[in-house]
Amino acid sequence: MAFEGAIGAARRVLGRLGAVIATIGAVVAGLAVPHPAQAGYASLVVDGGTGAVLNAVNPDEPNHPASLTKMMTLYLTFEAIHQGRLHWEDELPVSRNAANKEPTKLGLEVGQTISVKDCVLGMIVISANDGATVVGEALAGGSESVFARMMTDKARQLGMTNTVFRNASGLPDREQVTTARDMSRLAMALHHDFPQDYHYFATREFDFEGRHLTGHNRLMYRYPGMDGMKTGFTNASGSNLVSSAVHDGRRLFGVVFGGSSAKARDKLMETLLDNAFANRDTDPKLVALAAGRPLARMARARGTGRVAHAGRARVAHASVAPVQRRGHAAAHRRVASAHAGKHAGKHVAAKGHTHGKAAKVAGHAGKSKVAAKGHHHRKVAAE
């Protein structure tokens, strides 16, 4: 009897242990990245007044946000200010973790302090990774990883169901993902929830520690009615952009992911907004072209009808769900591989152009410490 009782007790213990393990597994699953990022391309235009989607190409395809991440850092900063947990003139300490962030930065040093306002302006104007980390740590008791969980929690509250944040700045992390639809929700939330602070997104320049820093959201400087919001770039994401503009009292929000260059990205955003304001459709092919995806196949198409058909198929499926597009991705890789040699020179030239642009951005802040460290890594996260 005693032996049978011991067996029963052991079974009960194992049963409870199994329940605990199952619970932990569920929690971990809930924190996991929704889908692996494809580093693809996407676009979305939304009417800010009605919420109507006016353009959508791959709106729910997982992509890396790059410095668009800072939009959530800014959301939580504005929220803390309006709740009285932070004040614009509060001086925040700079940790070693923050000071070591590369490459785009204010050049903060360990042990110094910086005001909340300067962190906000640094994030908006030059996409300062150190400034983003400082304010994130301040809001999370000194831990950037805790702040990242706060960011993801807030994303869920805002309806961003396919977004996971891993840091405050948007520096590369394979598990940090979002979608064009989710970023449009964040953009609209920033405008709706903090109307008194939204004007900061239109800031073009500011002075910091005796240096005059200018931004690199070039499209905002030339597009009528545009008053923000954020650029982003990493090698894994391509050139990203979230914009908002007003014409005749009508506000639109636009998102572009995966541009092959800042110039291509900006041109696409301009076209998307122009067409949306004029109630015209935008050909999905233009979104693919801005990402540089079908260019090699279309050039080869002049010689063979088979390749031309492959290019048309890729464009025709540009707006379908990610699951449907994966089969076409394999075909794309085979075609791209076949012509890699022919177009290698173009890719090299494109990379050189990006490095040149990044160096120019560094030069604007170059009177500062923005370009002081890691200049040769500038392309990793120039915006």
UniProtKB/TrEMBL annotation:
Source organism (scientific name): Nitrospirillum amazonense
BP-aspect Gene Ontology terms: cell wall organization; peptidoglycan biosynthetic process; proteolysis; regulation of cell shape
Matching Pfam families: Peptidase_S11
Family label: Belongs to the peptidase S11 family.
Regions of compositional bias (Basic residues) in chain numbering: 366-383
InterPro entries: Beta-lactam/transpept-like, Peptidase_S11, Peptidase_S11_N
Region of interest: Disordered: 353-383
Name of the protein described by the UniProt record: D-alanyl-D-alanine carboxypeptidase/D-alanyl-D-alanine carboxypeptidase (Penicillin-binding protein 5/6)
